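Summary of Year 1 activities. Much of the first year was spent building the evaluation harness for sequence design. The harness presents a backbone, in tokenized form, and records the residue chosen at every position. We chose the following record to illustrate the format because it has been used consistently in internal testing since the harness was completed.
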């Protein structure tokens, strides 16, 4: 529902940035000895894989190398500046990842399968240009081979989910008629909301996530939470991944069982729209 434009005189959004607005100071990968990443991928949190391998800067600018049990494969045009985006090797929970910084923010975890690099999870941190809402989502279990078009492919999969969830009407909130709480989705009987305490927080794309369950609620305050879906073809919301550290990037995966243990605090009252709010 298109109700608020970035050019609106009431709410100007074009100069606002996502929460992770400051580009992390990712160190440039200058040589193999100083920047070689060794990843033991026995993870218990987001996007786990089970095979150890090396990923490091390749011999040509923009290239990376997969080294898996002595077998090496070079991927070209994967990192480095590309038009208006900035792409770097990084880590998520200690596993290999690519960070893409541009108009929005993308984080892709990598895995090794059958002597090739595949993208396992894609995370996106952006905003809806029409209603001002911040969008933080992830899709895991992708398993598609890495190539130079990876950013476009990741964005395509993310856009469908984002448009279906984050296109709610913020105009009544801006006009002071309703609270700034908006329902995002549910993991079984746990409901997930974004709450904007003020119009300023909407302009700054700084919502507070909270959950509501059968036994109460829990407010994550300023902690960034990614709605994580499984199955890219028929996405199902399964987890809430909490950002514990930006650099290095650490995500804490919260399942339904984890969330329901937290959701025992007093809940907010329901407003006239049916959204939760004080």
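For this record, the design step produced the sequence shown next.
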């Amino acid at each position: 529902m298109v109700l608020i434009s970035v050019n609106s005189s009431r709410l100007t959004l074009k100069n606002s940035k996502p929460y992770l607005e400051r580009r992390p100071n990712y160190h440039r990968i200058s040589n193999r000895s100083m920047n070689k990443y060794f990843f033991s991928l026995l993870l218990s949190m987001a996007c786990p894989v089970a095979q150890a391998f090396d990923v490091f800067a390749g011999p040509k600018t923009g290239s990376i190398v997969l080294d898996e049990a002595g077998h090496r494969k070079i991927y070209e045009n994967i990192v480095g500046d590309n038009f208006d985006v900035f792409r770097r090797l990084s880590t998520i929970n200690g596993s290999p990842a690519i960070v893409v910084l541009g108009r929005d923010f993308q984080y892709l975890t990598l895995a090794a399968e059958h002597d090739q690099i595949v993208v396992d999870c894609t995370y996106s941190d952006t905003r809806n240009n029409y209603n001002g809402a911040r969008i933080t989502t992830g899709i895991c279990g992708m398993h598609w081979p890495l190539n130079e078009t990876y950013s476009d492919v990741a964005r395509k999969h993310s856009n469908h989910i984002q448009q279906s969830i984050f296109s709610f009407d913020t105009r009544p909130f801006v006009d002071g008629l309703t609270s700034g709480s908006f329902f995002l989705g549910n993991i079984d009987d746990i409901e997930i909301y974004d709450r904007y305490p003020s119009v300023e927080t909407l302009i700054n794309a700084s919502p507070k996530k909270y959950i509501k369950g059968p036994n109460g609620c829990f407010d994550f305050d300023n902690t960034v939470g990614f709605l994580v879906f499984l199955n890219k073809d028929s996405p199902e919301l399964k987890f809430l991944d909490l950002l514990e550290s930006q650099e290095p990037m650490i995500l804490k995966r919260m399942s339904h069982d984890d969330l329901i243990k937290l959701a025992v605090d007093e809940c907010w009252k329901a407003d006239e729209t049916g959204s939760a709010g004080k």
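The two ends are 25 Å apart (CA to CA). Quantitative recovery figures across the full test set are reported in Table 2.
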